[in-house]
Specification:
- The protein is mainly beta.
- The protein contains no helices and eleven strands.
- It has strands spanning about 5, 10-15, 20-25, 35-40, 45-50, 60, 70-75, 80-85, 90-100, 110-115, 115-120.
- The strands form two sheets. Strands 2, 4, 5, 6, 9, 10 and 11 form a seven-stranded mixed β-sheet that branches. The protein has a four-stranded antiparallel β-sheet with strand order 1-3-8-7, with no helix packed on it.
- β7 (about 70-75) and β8 (about 80-85) form a beta hairpin.
- The radius of gyration is 13 Å and the shape is globular.
Amino acid sequence: QVQLVESGGGLVQAGGSLRLSCAGSGRPISSYAIGWFRRAPGKEREFVSAIRWSSNTTYYSDSVKGRFAISRDNAKNTMYLQMNSLKPEDTAVYYCAAGGRGLVSLWQNWDYWGQGTQVTVSS
């Protein structure tokens, strides 16, 4: 079992940056694929980014590619999402996840979830 707790959300102006953190406990997140999803009001949960544990291959949705960067610090058992050049359409609750398998862009393929952190980007 892995427990995940996000932090770092908040209110930022368009063009600004935020870094989300997700601290793991229970088991090392280095043993899992890790990822981030988001849910905007009235929309379904959307894939943002992921890293496979075996190859360290990273994946990004087209909407965030070039602006967001996923990383992890295994010594701290923590994953991060650096978000730059934020846009109002990035406003959502962001969730970290662990244990992804197969097609990582499908939220159904992930085992462990954090509680979410709100990111609001003002125009």
